[in-house]
Amino acid sequence: MPLVRIDLAKSSSPQLRRAVSETVYEAMTQIANVPEHDKFQIVTLHDEDQLIYPAQGYLGVSYTPAIIFIHVTWVAGRSLDVKKAFYQKIADDLHAKAGVRKEDVFIVLSDTQREDWSFGGGLMQYAPK
Asked: In this structure, are residues 24 and 16 in contact, taking their beta carbons and an 8 Å threshold?
């Protein structure tokens, strides 16, 4: 049930956009135990001046205008080890598949409760029993 928001520069190629989308989905299904076909993503393209990051870097990480912001909202409950493996797989695979600098892969996870989701129809499909 994750909702993924991917923010990239308008100058990114369609191939890179697909690679990011598929890489995140693969990490969700292979590492984070997300069910197959549970792929809800919003890809937004931005002018270079709309992707803002510290030019001097942060926490020892330097960034370039090719930074990719990935925000995953999902149901809480995944372990610290799963989250670490998830981050690493995305950075490693984007580097291997698309030549993305690992430092330019910025990921944030937001945990929610099952009842915080409606998949349509005005229903709470995961309502408590």
From this structure: no
